[in-house]
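Its record is quoted verbatim for completeness.
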Amino acid sequence: MDLVHDATVRIHRPGSGYAHDGPGGDFLGSGFFIAPSWILTCAHVAMRGEGGVVNVWFKEDRYSTELSEVPGKVVAAMPGARPQGAAAWPAPDLALIKLQRPVEHTCVYVTERSEAMLRSREIHCVGWAPSQGGGLLKRSGVCAVKGAYGASDDAEQVVRLDGDWLEPGMSGGPVVDLARGEVVGVIKSRLDNHQGGTAVGIERLRTLKVPSTPVEAEADDTYQSVFHAHDRYHADRHNSPASTERTWADAQSELSAPPGGVLGPKRRADLLGRLAEFPPPVSTRSLLALLDSLPGVHSRDHRPAPRGWRDGLGALYDTRPRDRDAPLELVLRYCMGVLAADRPFGTPSTRTAAGSLWEWVKRISEEELSRDFRQQLAMDWAAVRLRLEESRGRARAPLSNPVRYGERGYVVLELEPQGWVRDRYDWRIGVARHTGEMLPVDEDSQGSALDTLPDRLAAALTEAFRQCDEPGSPALLQVAVAPALFGLEVDRWELPSDGQPLGVVRPVVLRSSYHGPADERLARWNAMPDAGMWAEVVDCDNELRVRVPEVAHLRTLPHESVPVLCRYGSRPDPEITAGVVRVLDTGFGVALLQRRPTETDTVCKEFHRRAAEAVSDAHARDGLPLKVHELRKGVRAERTETYWSDGVALYWDDPHHPLPGSDEFLEAP
């Protein structure tokens, strides 16, 4: 139950003036993290916030009992308002809340089966409620499922519960089938003066509105976005050798009747994570057609209809096996159907996902199934691989050529530590012309503390930007510092004239005051192709922090590779800084660094995955500043699919446009 309690949250009105730990008018109800940065609750809880905005109190540190606060916004509610004259909020009474900034938290495991709650005998209900002492306490109780109001195809079906008292405030909390170790529903209501109440099955989320326009990215469909993130979260934590946390798959494996059908909890978590790497089904109809093509599967028996790959897998659990191998063969046939399915959109990572899923299918079949069946799978894979090769040849070209920053002006901010005074820095600001000329704007050699720099430099930066910005195309800011200062987040500074972080307003990149051999820098920069880059993580191996390789090894990396340091952090120690220096000594002019603090057991698979996609999406080296700028704007706009990039810095140092000599640069008027 600890896994459930850690992910259960309190939902409050924003800024009502009541004490956050009291039962005053600001407390709305409960909810739970269903995926990173996503909370599931009841619509009647979420929509009582002001303008769809709420405050969420949650457990951020697994080693502490203290709660943290983060704002959230209602993205979807079913229904969005209580009908006029209705005594209660009608079912399904579900809402999804998106956090307005990235935070660390745990997530529940949500069942992929249809009507899972109605098949449960004993369930646990968890939520927050006022205590007799005047505060708010987390409450839990045991209830029995007594049937439902409405049939499975009824949009307003709710499940009847009997047993423990459900307290005011528990609405929106999770309903857990502890026999199977998964969340199966959401608490909707309690019975006045009676024990028990009602709940809504988790499968009702499938009725979220389907996008009316073509889906061109995972984030375009909220349902798919949430559950793909859910499945990747659990697969990453289960598979990570770095993580020391007890996972849902661990807990489920210890149950007397583990979930996951023939797969079991651990294989299931792994498979769902691999399926979540694919674009979603083109449509519900196409998914139903795939299920109906499998022996013994009747897709129409599952209501609401399966909508995502995980829902399709859950539909396989109800088939009656004709022999011992049939259940596993069915799962593998389904996986081959996913591999062969049409895609609503294509991404460079789809090819990697296909290879990963095939390796899983191949390994499982070799361990447990007949040679004849394996041969059939191999033939199917050959056809899929041919199709992937053909689609690769038709890969979409970049929509436009990236801005080439050597062909237009940009702003340079150079910071240099004073050797005789600790934590004091001289600074210089200038505008670089495409001709190579550097026009000084302002400087200070008296020494400024780091925390005073944003205010101290605001006027000079504003003037520099005014000199080289173009309508609709803000100039690039290059921040030149020593490698030990790559953690300085200049992109988060705000100028009074903008009111937004610099990295949201314009591309901001790092340059280094230290460089390796000039010939290697120039050779590697010139040899980097105009397209076809890929990310190469150099300080992490299988999610375990490792030492950045020596220069001799780094030199063997192809010219297409972009080094990624996912363990740089905000305050790098000397060993981390030395690793960055080795990257520079190899001549790399482009690298990505993650400046968010990490622990030894940090699970970084999602960062690796998304960094690789970002590098690939940029198409060319000159597209990376714009790509990172786009990601920073996404974080600011509260797009959860970009939250992984919070804290990312881009090192981008063009040897064709060297930093000016200090003598020339210091001649400011």
Summary: The first helix runs from residue 2 to 7. The radius of gyration is 27 Å.
